[in-house]
Each structure stands twice: as structure tokens, then as C-alpha cells.
Automatic annotation (TrEMBL):
SUPFAM superfamilies: MFS general substrate transporter (SSF103473)
Gene3D superfamilies with a match to the protein in the record: MFS general substrate transporter like domains
Organism: Bacillus cereus
Record field: transmembrane: 20-46, 52-73, 85-106, 112-134, 154-174, 180-199, 238-259, 271-289, 301-321, 333-358, 370-393, 399-416
Annotated localization: Cell membrane
MF terms (GO), sorted A to Z: transmembrane transporter activity
InterPro entries: Bacilysin_exporter_BacE_put (IPR022324), MFS (IPR011701), MFS_trans_sf (IPR036259)
Membrane topology per record: Multi-pass membrane protein
UniProt keyword list: Cell membrane, Membrane, Transmembrane, Transmembrane helix, Transport
GO CC, any one term: plasma membrane
UniProt keyword Transmembrane helix present: yes
Keyword Lipid biosynthesis in record: no
Designated name of the protein: Permease
């Protein structure tokens, strides 16, 4: 009997490993394809038009539809078969790009085709992302869910490093139309990989009564919002993630490039080096997060990491105060490399366990909607933070944004983390609601 149980467990373990490998392949193809395509397409638009406005429109079409469509994608992810959803989205992305290749061969790659393609690709990618995120607890056991989230974060981080680099190479070496057909085929291959993933391997997370239901978008989105609002632990979790997104944009994303390039006059080579350390930090954080959450209370960890993130935000504004002192620029470069590396590492240590908690806490029939609402709010905060930070930079000293933002972030997150008592580790989690 014991040997039979062991055989069954080994068989399930092998299926989980296969799911993880196929997931990694599919996500890598989709994420890298989208990242390289977006960067190369932006360069192409600048080349053919020379207009910053047209370039900005391309960026907007890659962002706004995602914010708007996220809640609807969450409803669809909760109401239909998630495997069919993500496969269909990859197939649609592939077919769209192949169609664009054919059209551009006859009519050229004009702005109308580029804008339409960018909009549709953003919609398809949004549905793909929500469907795959909501399905994670169904394709691996709770023991491996943290590892799957770490792999996902590593893929995202590597794409941040290599995406622009490969996009630049693609733009320089290949004709844009050639790359479009290659990217289209890669999405089809990603869909084929997903076909072999078992989306119902962990049956305990699947509510079969909710698999086929009538879709009412307004009602369903309200249900997801009500579910979120009724649970204090989830509300505080989303508050932490949303405030993190906002203050990173407000205190880091806009002020730091301005400080480095305009105030401290660092070279573009130095700036690129500093920017590259952030995703490297996220990769390291994703690798070590499982061991850390097994040894420390996550409530304790969250308070300490939030404190450190705020301190690094504050410190990032400090060099401006010492600009009048003769300091070798290498000192500033080294300092900012360390700041960005540790910010990336600590954000991974916050993000991955919190996402794990939400995946485990939210039942399958609500997961897509609740996650999509949180993601929409987080995405909405980013342009607000960027616009506000950019506006203030024209009127106040640059160092006040990272210092002020860091102080406010510290106060807010200490308040939220005191209300949230989580124990998260690779074998499970627990919640104590105050």
C-alpha cells in the first residue's frame, strides 16, 4: 500500500515538473516575443515618422487597453476553461502577426496597421496573462506554487534585461516584416506548449460547479470587488502592492533617471549599467525567496523589507545634496548600482510571497476577477505616479521626490503590514485576521 502511494506521488510529481517546464517555455516565448516586438516596433515607428507623439501613441496603446480590459479578462478567466482561454489568446496573437505580415507585404507596414496590431496584441496579452496567472494553483501543488511564481518572476526580469537588447539587435539585423512573421510563429509554438500542460492536475483547487456559468460582466465584476472588500487580509495585501507600484513610479522611475542624467551628469553607459542591476536583483530575490520564507515569519519579513525599500528610496535622493563636493562619478555609479540591485531584490521578496498568498487565499471561481481588479488598480497607479512625479520635478528640487516618497511609503506600509498577519512558506500559509 505504501509503495503504491509512493508510486502515485512520484507520478504526480513528474507531471508537476512537466507542467513547470512547459509553463516556463510558453511564458518565455510569449514574454520575450512581446518584449522584443514592443521595443523593435517603437524604434521602427520613430524611424519612419520621426515623431515622438506617434511613438507615445504606440506606448499608450500598449498600456491603456490592459488597464481597461483587465477586469473583463478576470471575468472570462473565472467563467471559461482557463486552458482554452490562454491557448486561444496565443493562437490569436500568432494569427494576428501572420496576417500583419501578409498585409504589410502588399500594402506596407503603415501606422494604421501598427496601431491596430498594438491594440489587439495588448488585449490578447491581457487575457493570456490573467488566465495563466489564475490557473497557476491548478497546475502545481501548493508545495511548488512558490517555485512556479519564482520562475515566472525570473522570466519577467530576464526579459527586462534582454528584451530591449534583443529588440535593438532585431531592428538592426532583420527587416521588421521578417521579425513579425517569426514572432507570429513563436506565439503558435507557445500555444502548442500550453496544450500539453495539465490544467487540472491539482483537483482540490477547482470548483467544478463554477466551470460553466452565464457571463454578466457588470454583475461578475461587482461580485469580485465585493469578495475583495469583504476580506481585510486581501485588501491590505492589495494596498501594499498598489502603494509599492505607486511609490516606485513616483520616487524611483522618474526622479532617478533625471538625477543621474541631468543633475549628476552620468554617462549613458553608466545609466544603462545602473538600470540593468534592478532586474538582476529581482532574479536573485526570486531564487532565494523560498528559503527565506521558510525561515522567517512573513509578517516580520514584510515589515523589515518595506522599511528597507523606503530607506533605499530616501538614500537614492541623497547624492544630490553632496553634488557640490568633489566626488568621483564612479562612487555615484557604484552607489546607484547597489541601490537598484537591492530594490529589485526586495521587491521580489515582497511580490512573490504576496502573489502566492493571493493565489492560495482566493478560490478558483473568484481568482481571475480579484487578481484582475488588483492588477488594474496597480497599473492605473503607475501613469498617475509618473505624471505627478514628472510635473513636480519642474517645480521642486529633484531630491525631494525620492526622499519624500520614501518617507510616505514607510509610514503607509508600516500601517498596512501591522494589520496583516501572514505566515507564508513553501508548504502552505496561514492568516490571522485582526
Amino acid at each position: 500500500m505504501a509503495s503504491l502511494r509512493l508510486h502515485i506521488e512520484n507520478k504526480k510529481s513528474n507531471k508537476e515538473l512537466r507542467n513547470i517546464c512547459l509553463y516556463a517555455i510558453a511564458k518565455t516565448v510569449s514574454i520575450f516575443g512581446s518584449s522584443i516586438y514592443s521595443f523593435a516596433l517603437g524604434l521602427y515607428v520613430l524611424q519612419i515618422t520621426g515623431s515622438a507623439l506617434n511613438f507615445a501613441i504606440t506606448l499608450i496603446l500598449g498600456t491603456i487597453p490592459m488597464i481597461v480590459m483587465n477586469p473583463f479578462a478576470g471575468v472570462i478567466a473565472d467563467k471559461v476553461d482557463k486552458k482554452k482561454l490562454v491557448v486561444c489568446m496565443d493562437v490569436l496573437s500568432g494569427c494576428l502577426l501572420i496576417t500583419v505580415y501578409i498585409l504589410s507585404s502588399y500594402y506596407g507596414l503603415n501606422l494604421f496597421i501598427i496601431y491596430t496590431t498594438t491594440f489587439l496584441m495588448t488585449v490578447f496579452t491581457t487575457f493570456f496573462g490573467i488566465g495563466l496567472e489564475a490557473a497557476k494553483p491548478n497546475i502545481v501543488s501548493k508545495e511548488r506554487l512558490m517555485s512556479l511564481n519564482s520562475i515566472s518572476k525570473i522570466i519577467d526580469s530576464i526579459s527586462l534585461i534582454l528584451g530591449p537588447m534583443l529588440g535593438g539587435i532585431v531592428f538592426a539585423v532583420f527587416d521588421m516584416k521578417t521579425f513579425i512573421i517569426i514572432n507570429g510563429i513563436s506565439f503558435i509554438l507557445s500555444a502548442i506548449s500550453i496544450l500539453f500542460i495539465n490544467f487540472k492536475l491539482c483537483e482540490q483547487y477547482i470548483n467544478k460547479e463554477c466551470s460553466i456559468r452565464e457571463i454578466n460582466f457588470i454583475k461578475d465584476i461587482k461580485e469580485g470587488y465585493s469578495y475583495l472588500m469583504e476580506r481585510e487580509s486581501l485588501k491590505n495585501t492589495f494596498r501594499i502592492l498598489i502603494s509599492l507600484n505607486f511609490f516606485l513610479g513616483f520616487a524611483v522611475t522618474v526622479p532617478l533617471p533625471y538625477i543621474m542624467n541631468t543633475v549628476l551628469n552620468l554617462s549613458s553607459k553608466h545609466f544603462g549599467l545602473i538600470q540593468g542591476t534592478f532586474p538582476i536583483g529581482m532574479i536573485v530575490g526570486a531564487i532565494i525567496v523560498k528559503k527565506i520564507t521558510n525561515h522567517f515569519s512573513y509578517s516580520y519579513l514584510l515589515k523589515k523589507i518595506s522599511f528597507m525599500v523606503a530607506i533605499f528610496m530616501i538614500v537614492s535622493g541623497a547624492p544630490v545634496l553632496f553634488k557640490s563636493i568633489e566626488v568621483n562619478k564612479i562612487v555615484f555609479v557604484t552607489m546607484y548600482c547597489a541601490i537598484m540591485f537591492f530594490l529589485g531584490l526586495m521587491i521580489a521578496l515582497i511580490d512573490i510571497p504576496l502573489i502566492y498568498f493571493m493565489q492560495r487565499e482566493i478560490p478558483d471561481e473568484y481568482r481571475g476577477r480579484v487578481l484582475s481588479i488588483g492588477l488594474s488598480l496597480g497599473k492605473l497607479m503607475q501613469p498617475i505616479a509618473l505624471a505627478l512625479s514628472g510635473l513636480l520635478l519642474n517645480h521642486i528640487p529633484s531630491y525631494t521626490l525620492p526622499i519624500g516618497g520614501g518617507i510616505v511609503f514607510l509610514i503607509l506600509n508600516q500601517a498596512y503590514s501591522n494589520k496583516l498577519n501572514l505566515e507564508i512558506h513553501s508548504k502552505g500559509y496561514s492568516v490571522e485576521r485582526n
